[in-house]
Fold:
Amino acid sequence: HGWFLQKIYAAKKLPIEKSPGEIEKIYKKYETFQILYKGAKQESLIHQSYLLIYTVRLLIFGLLIATLTNHPLASILLINLLSCLMLAYLFLRRPLEDKVTEILQFVFEIMLLVYNICVLSLAGLDNSQSPSLCTQKGIGIFLLVIKIIFNFVIFGFFIFKLVQAYLQMQKQAQFRRRGVPVNERRPMTNKAQPSTAQSPSTAAVENTG
Structure:
């Protein structure tokens, strides 16, 4: 992934007359690997590294859970730090092209951070000399509510994407029925300029003349 992004970044540093063709050539050559960059903005290397950053974050999360089982407080502190860094990356760089997906990812990260803060509070209460059972119960209920909301948000997003895909398929079907290619764009016309195209009757008069 990093090697592929580096090739794209190197192509973008070429002179302006060579860069677009070179980048298009690289994308065509590695089209089967488009999952590595599909959906991310092409403004810079840090934008296209979204999937790489997200994957590294998940790997670090798994390592923390596996290696710090005897130190839950330190583990949850580092996990909260990871969540804060990911939120900062999403907010400052905005790497995703689709606004809905970007907003949803941002909401997920906020909910995950709130969830982790609650777990941190529980870990701190466990380490205290006199933990409050009432406080622990309240935090547990709050965690359950967050999990339910999280599931509903995922379900709502799934329904939204299904409806969006259905409407897109309907639009493509209408274009096919009209015999218009889906990717064809209508040319921009300038009303202020007179049309240079000749009508059949005018062309006939000129030919007879």
User: Anything to note?
Assistant: DSSP finds eight helices and no strands in the chain. Residues 184-209 have pLDDT under 50 and may be disordered.
